[in-house]
Amino acid sequence: MKIALLSALNAERARRSAAVLVTDLESGEQRLVKSGQLKKDPLANALQEQLRLGKSGTIEDQGRRYFLTVQSPPVRILVIGAVHISQALAPMAKTLGFDIAIVDPRTAFASPERFPKAALHAVWPDAYLAQNPLDRYTGVVALTHDPKIDDVALSAALKAECFYIGALGSKRTHAKRVERLKGTGFSGAGIARISAPIGLDIGASTPAEIALATLAQLTAALRKTDAVPAKPKVAVAR
Amino acid sequence: MVASECDILAKAEEWAKENRGVALATVIETWGSAPRPVGSHLIIDENGSFLGSVSGGCVEGEVVTEAMDVIETGKAKMLEFGVADESAWRVGLSCGGRIKVYVEKIE
User: Fold this and answer.
1) What digits encode the pLDDT tens for the residues B55-93?
2) Better-predicted residue by pLDDT, A80 or B60
3) Where are the domains of chain B?
4) Same structural domain for residues A32 and A98?
5) Which one of A71, A102, A118 terminates a domain?
6) Would you say residue A236 lies in a domain?
7) Is B29 an interface residue toward A (CB < 8 Å)?
8) Cβ neighbours around B102 below 10 Å, total
């Protein structure tokens, strides 16, 4: 592979833009097809299908075999709330290979001492989201319990069709949340995409265990096709 | 922490820009229970340092050896591994699957 091609592929990833590297397995010839050029490519249909599946793979076209290296944007997790669970969740998410950002306007919580290595933003979620819009390759984890902080992010996540949306809180807290979201015009089916109480039911009790349950549930949403109802197709490179 | 396939590609770029000879190995096809999915990468430099994986460690040694050759000649190679392979006594996939790995030089 030409180094220029590899650089271009990596640059697309850094921009959170999808791209497919096409390798002719007979001749070794390669080309990079960026998301904006997909439709014009001779292999347009195959490229779009492979990108939709989010999987690299071999295809055949007119007797020639091509390998398609599918690169979809890296999975990102936006955590609302610089709380105890987030402290445990941040390093776990990194180990799993997810980019993570933590947003909490409460500076007492969002302090670098509490999160020495994480991307921490001591701002309100709407301010953060104005600069960093959500996309479906992002999972949103709301952990503050505080509607003033959580709800904005949850609404934005529902609109952006984030692949995973989870919110901390008891069934009672969540029932109130559902009512509030319905009040702002979301349908019941849409709101049902929010996983609450958050996390797989593993009987988690400590903050670290809740972080584990949450990341397990998020991973299931990413990898299993039937994990979350009405999940939009998310193409994610491994 | 290098965890995803994309991080590995970023690392490959970094290595190549340091003027190290670098080869990229990619799982092209799998049959049966293969340990790593299609699209998984392993990068190898001229000294045999490597990062990533194309199997659970079963055939990496062989891929690294072949990659040294690819770095030297600049010619891409298609490798196949599986228990049915005649080299199974030497390298193979204990899980019983088969994989095809494309090895190319970054230049």
Assistant:
1) 877 788 899 999 999 999 999 999 998 754 555 455 556
2) A80
3) 5-106
4) no
5) A71
6) no
7) yes
8) 22
B97 pLDDT more than 90: no
In this structure, are A113 and A23 located in the same domain? no
A118 and A197, same structural domain? yes
Provide the pLDDT for residue B35: 79
Within a domain: residue A96? Answer: yes
Name every chain B residue with its beta carbon within 8 A of the beta carbon of A10: 6, 9-10, 13
- C-beta atoms of A28 and B76 within 8 A: yes
Give the mean pLDDT of B13-28.
96
Q: Which bin fits A158, alpha (ψ -120 to 50), beta or left (φ > 0)?
A: alpha
CA distance A220 to chain B (A): 17
CA separation for the pair B38, B28 (Å, rounded):
5
Residue B9 distance to chain A (closest CA, Å): 7
Q: Is B40 on the interface with A (CB under 8 A)?
A: yes
Q: What is the DSSP letter of A230?
A: T
Q: Answer yes or no: do A50 and A85 share one domain.
A: no
Interchain CB contact of B107 with A (< 8 Å): yes
Establish if A127 belongs to a structural domain: yes
Task: Note whether A107 and A15 are same-domain residues.
Answer: no
Provide the pLDDT for residue A8.
95
On average, the pLDDT of chain A sits at: 90
What is the nearest CA distance from A206 to chain B, expressed in angstroms? 26
Task: Among A12, A47, A71, identify where a domain stops.
Answer: A71
Give a yes or no: residue A102 inside a domain. Answer: yes
Indicate if the pLDDT at residue A44 is higher than 80.
yes
Q: A132 and A117, same structural domain?
A: yes
Helix (H, G, I), strand (E, B) or coil at B86: helix
pLDDT, tens digit, 9 for 90 and up, residues A193-206: 999 999 999 999 99
For residues B90-100, give the mean pLDDT: 70
Q: Please say if the pLDDT value at position A175 is more than 80.
A: yes
The reply to whether residue B106 touches residue A3, judged by beta carbons under 8 angstroms, is: yes
φ, ψ of residue B13 to 5 degrees: the values are -65, -45
Can you spell out the DSSP letters for A40-78? Answer: GSTTHHHHHHHHHHT--EEEEETTEEEEEEEE-PPPEEE
Count of domains observed in chain A: 2
- Partner A contacted by B37 (CB < 8 A): yes
Residue-range definition of the domain harbouring residue A39: 3-71
Count CB pairs under 8 A between chains A and B: 72
Dihedral in degrees, nearest 10, Cα atoms A199, A205, A211, A212: -80
